[in-house]
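cache lookup: miss for this entity combination. No prior model stored, computing from scratch. Input as submitted by user K.M.:
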Amino acid sequence: MDLQIALLLGQDGIVNGAVYGLMALALVLVFSVTRVIFIPQGELVAFGALSMAALTAGRVPATLWLLVALAAMTLVVEAWRWKRGATVDWKSTLVWTVLFPALAAGLVLGLRPTSLALQALTTLFLITPLGPLLYRLAYRPLADATVLILLIVSVALHGVLVGLGLLFFGAEGSRTPAFSEARFDIGGVPVSGQSLVVVGVAFVLVVLMFLFFERSIVGKALRATAMNRVGARLMGIPTDLSGDLSFALSALIGAVSGLLIAPLTTVYYDTGFLIGLKGFVAAIVGGLGSYPIALLGALLVGQLEAFSSFWASAFKEVLVFTLIIPVLWWRSLRSRHVEDEE
Amino acid sequence: MTRRHLTLLCIAALALSWPWLPEFTVTLFSYIALYSLVAAGLVMLTGVGGMTSFGQAAFVAVGAYATAWICTSPTATAALGGIVPAALLPWVGLVFGLLLTFVVAWSLGAITLKLSGHYLPLCTIAWGLSLYFLFGNLEFLGGQTGITGVPALTVFGVSLASPRALGPLIWAVLLLALWALHNLLDSREGRAVRALKSGRVMAESMGVDTARYRVKVFVLAALLAAVSGWLYAHLQRFVNPTPFNINIGIEYLFMAVVGGSGHLWGAVLGATLITLVKEQLQDLLPKLLGASGNFEVIVFGLLMLFVLQRFAEGLWPTLARVAGRFLKPEPVRAAQAVAPLDSRTLPAAGELLLEADRVTKRFGGLIANNAVAMTLKAGEVHALIGPNGAGKSTFFNMISGVDDPTEGEVRLLGAAMTGKPSRDFAARGLGRTFQHVRLLGNRSVLENVALGAHRRGHRGWIASMLRLDRAEEAALLAEARRQIERCGLGAHADAPAASLALGQQRVVEIARALAGQPAALLLDEPAAGLRHLEKQALAELLSQLRAEGLGILVVEHDMEFVMNLADRITVLEFGTVIAEGTPAQVQSNPRVLDAYLGGSDDEPIAVAA
């Protein structure tokens, strides 16, 4: 290996690491606010990428029908709860079940966007509301269950979504046109415009998230919920709101990640699972609690993957997932007393 | 007819009809038994032990590949060829697979199980994926094509080549495993395993090394999966990576959860259901949807969501409830022999039991306890009181080994306990109760109290599985019953703990602590939720225990109860000791009056008589 190859691999690692970093952020966000280990995060990435591919090919992405179906089911469930005397926040319910699906349907069926930017926007409108809808249908009835049960729910949901992905998009993979065809030469290393787009968008998203959590009242409410659920509820922060919002953000991040990777690699209906899990390995480095350490972990995972694909490409996945073992070992060294889980 | 009779009847029916069942059914039943074996391990892990694994398929793979490699690889046969006859190679494969599984499971468990519960399942996903990719890429294991030509098992010269011949062996292994697991759960070790789920702090306080038990349950589940893999390899006669991927690992968990993850027979029910449904769906769904692929995962996922939201316990309890109407309860069999239990010589009255030496605890900038000094002697009741937020709970945690002081030291019977876990406190003679009751709600009061005597028995897992622990078990249960009766709950001994009133549950916790024969007893608000007469009975019990030489530390808000019972009282406010002395001294202390009444009047606290 010479310097040239090392730089190329390093660049690859940074680009992939940026996507894993976004995954890790979303996972940490959802876990700290709702205690859900959101395995289906990866499926949302694949749904985002494949919906975009369908749009660029001039087809109607089947995720639209999924969105409409989930919205209808959520409406029925909420109406039923309301009838049984539960308090239902109709404003947010209608935003997720009517406004977003209507906008998405209008964009897909009415406007039929042709420019890449509009197609990307349409994809975001399609995928983002899936987060809160899945939360309300699958997780909220079990909001008081243990982390373990919520994890099992996640895995069940992962199965459902992968199966639906196969049904919607078939077994063939898709690739979308790059957002930027530009090529640069930095110090003798060719850098593609798309790589810069990925890193740039990831960076902007991280900064936006940071501002959202530091400056906005809603962001602060989410942070409060993450620190102390009961306390936040007593302060008047609705649990539903924090669940909806964290899942919406996570779905948005998933859709953006899907848009970012679709031009770089062929995405299949089950590609998302592995991407999501690599985000997990990164998030676990930070103990599922720290955003900055999770980002560092993501870069580490990206580099490990890039370099192992050079030295031992057949064992690339094995090496990446085995990284979790030394990381957990290191974390377990620092724990002394047992603690009860919530 | 009792449940046992019905079970035996079903087994007999299956055995008698076996030779006449069609080939297809025989194969299906053999696979159901193989899956049940893995699912039974997951029941132990998930429903009983409160952990879970999505990577059991990888352990099945280890069992299958180990025997396939031993039986077919030229390297292995060359090494073993001279010593082991060919017919015995599969048995070498079994041992090899079990050893390999043991090492892997033990290492994975030891690394993850000290951490909180969700790290293990996440780790098993990663491990399941890694192993799948690894097997697919290793040349000596045949890569994606796998290993063909795995020989059939031969037992006493009879070749078990067909599913009809091997099936009975598979079912025998499954039934033996279920019997052993059932015995294990009905023993001292089983109680400790069950305690893992409801909270590790409680289990540790009863002297259970929770990390070790968690690793052991995980290893047990992995070994069952490896045995299933071994049988699978000799049934299928070839192995490749496909049946061991992560999706199959997830399917095993579906079986356990759908069937009923808290019940051993739930594993068999779940494995049967999922296998039969999968069989149907694999034909039906592609036709229905007009595309080919593994669409059954959609149905299984939805089924799983439905079961988790509506039948959190799985389907078995519902089935058992219905069957319960027609079945007679199992007759209770009295044990023949009773083994002696460990017992300790209690320190003489007046001897120093527990000593907190200038204990300080800081949480960041907050000082929860500031140089708190306190002692507990044998044969006295010492009360710790203070307003809410005074730091009592923090202090309680440090003298019971749940947390370490930032500065200062806790000594128990003369030994420094800094850095020691709660179970070491229990081993040295400390019993405790919890402010928020921690009982296994759906187990009987008797079983809950018997958990307290955990450290006084010694029979291990193997002895329990083989029913060699009956004498000791009888002694433990007798001791538990004695403590329950002593605490006045004899009438409720066999009721589920959750069916008792909250106040009574607190008394169950005291009985549980007493079953461990402690020298020092720490009670966290024992009188909360008790009615007047119950409080009097409790005060009487504590007085009697004091007379027997126990040292009792009570954290309590009920002033009447405390003032009438305690020999000495320590008052905490803002993490600092503001007064210490007899009830009379404390009642007339102006700082105490300040703390409780918010301003010093000259009148002492009125003690309602």
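stored under new cache key. Chain A has 15 helices and two strands.
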